[in-house]
Design goal:
CATH architecture of the largest domain: 3-Layer(aba) Sandwich
Number of strands: 14
CATH superfamily of the largest domain: Type I PLP-dependent aspartate aminotransferase-like (Major domain)
Helix content: 25-40%
Largest sheet: 7 strands, mixed
Distance between the termini: 49 Å
Oligomer: single chain
Length: 364
């Protein structure tokens, strides 16, 4: 029996093979995982009975209040990954043109192809600080693109999008009768009150979760903010794929959102301190250049010595009980994605070992 081939999600397979991973694991890309004690969560706080309808009412109300999005524009999903897939499954047909940022998180380009869409990459370049390539997007929309796909902060570089650039993209999508999806799973790291790119235009769709910023990846609490008519179609698709959002996970998410500002303040500080460690370490090296970063949890330096980043990571894991993400995972050989949101002592020692590996390979 022949089956439709599903291409491997190479980065995800690579990451899962390294769970829990080496002792000095700098490949992690989220905030420290929270515990029940961190949330003051008790067993009686959990709920198991569905309240019916399309989405847990308490969670919808919490998200609506926090982000200023009407409940009818919110679709709950198991993580931003499923939220993204619901957007693709609702909007795309065979032959549609999709503009996807590059470098990109692998699934953002793979899933459209599973729907028969054509992917055209629009490059966020190191020379621009990985800024949104507005002109290339405008040209692609003029060529008939159905959807534009971006991340904010950009994964893997950690560079935040400029809202004025996003407004220009939103206006171009409006003129072209197209949509823009922004996976904003890191966006809450921006200073000040939280905002959503959904507010930047009628054709904007935002997806996110409590994973990266809030340290709650295990409960898979994600969502999409979309125009009400599109959200209704996404909910119909979710009837086939997810049926209902897990009720206990919704209860935990509501508890977390009740103290989200305190969690966010703490994790912003974790990211700031971690980045300072990375920045100061890179300043001691003549073979690394920090191309861009936001006030978040990941950095994306370029290796300037010519050392193969794939070989470097292999050496690190084999010889130094350490890992980072090679740029090859994002079609950017010559770069490394370093997570700096974990334990600071682990980060310092992991960077020391990374430096030793760079020296060893350059000398060989």
């Amino acid at each position: 029996m022949s089956a439709r081939p599903i291409p491997p999600f190479e980065y995800m397979e690579w990451a899962k093979e390294r769970t829990p991973g080496p002792t000095y694991n700098l490949a992690q890309s989220g905030a420290p995982a929270l515990s029940a004690a961190d949330l003051d969560l008790k067993i009686e706080d959990l709920r198991f009975k569905q309240d019916g309808g399309y989405g847990d009412r308490a969670l919808l109300e919490s998200l609506s209040a926090r982000y200023g999005v009407p409940a009818e524009e919110i679709v709950l999903a198991s993580g931003s990954s499923l939220a993204n897939a619901l957007v693709y499954g609702t909007l795309l047909s065979a032959g549609d043109l999709v503009l996807v940022e590059r470098p990109c998180y692998e699934s953002l380009a793979t899933i459209p192809r599973l729907h028969g869409a054509t992917v055209r990459f629009v490059d966020r370049t190191p020379e621009s600080g990985f800024a949104v390539p507005v002109e290339a997007i405008e040209n692609g929309l003029a060529d008939g693109a159905r959807l534009v796909v971006l991340t904010d902060f950009h994964n893997p570089s950690g560079s935040p999008c400029d809202d004025e650039d996003l407004r220009r993209v939103a206006a171009a999508a409006e003129r072209a009768d197209a949509f823009v999806m922004v996976d904003e799973v890191y966006r809450d790291f921006l200073p000040g009150p939280v905002t959503t790119t959904r507010a930047l235009g009628d054709r904007m769709i935002a997806t996110s979760s409590l994973t990266k910023v809030y340290g709650l990846g295990g409960i898979r609490a994600g969502w999409a903010f979309a125009p009400a008519d599109l959200a209704a179609d996404m909910l119909r698709l979710h009837d086939y794929l997810g049926v209902v959002f897990p009720v206990p996970c919704a209860a935990i998410a509501v508890k977390a959102l009740g103290r989200a500002d305190a969690i966010l303040d703490a994790h912003r500080e974790v990211g700031r301190r971690g980045f300072e460690i990375v920045r100061e370490w890179i300043a001691t090296r003549d073979d690394l250049a920090l191309t861009a970063t936001g006030p978040g949890l990941i950095s994306f330096p370029r290796v300037t010595s010519g050392v193969s980043t794939a070989a470097l990571v292999e050496h690190l894991e084999r010889e130094a009980d350490t890992t980072v993400v090679p740029g090859e995972a994002f079609d950017m050989p010559g770069f490394l994605r370093i997570g700096h949101g974990g334990d600071r002592d682990v980060l310092r020692e992991g960077l020391r070992r990374l430096g030793q590996a760079l020296d060893a390979l350059r000398a060989s």
